[in-house]
Amino acid sequence: MNLTLSVDDKLVEKARQVASRQGTSLQALVRQYIETLAGSREGVALVDRLEEQWREADKHLRDHPPRSYKFDRDELYEDRLRRRRRVE
User: Fold this and answer.
1) pTM across the whole model
2) Average pLDDT for the chain
3) How many angstroms separate the Cα of 82 from the Cα of each of 39, 53, 62, 65, 77?
4) Can you say whether the dihedral through the CA atoms of 75, 78, 83, 84 is positive or negative?
5) For 39, which DSSP code?
6) DSSP at 6
7) CA–CA–CA angle 4, 20, 32 (5° rounding)
8) Strand, helix or coil at 5?
């Protein structure tokens, strides 16, 4: 199905630049957004992945507040291994 929208030219150009930086097209970005809104399986899966990443980042920041935490190479490596094991 074709869809026609009225959008400011400058806004479209900025959106195309964003899409280009992401290695995709503006059409693909809009399609993906509509799929997410409509609750398609692909859109829902994308939102679920983003929410999970957000929860992990939030937990990490709560466990390791930026001002009081000094990075320890071994600890960072162990954290990375733990996350990789959960995925596998």
Assistant:
1) 0.43
2) 81
3) 31, 15, 18, 20, 9
4) positive
5) T
6) -
7) 50
8) coil
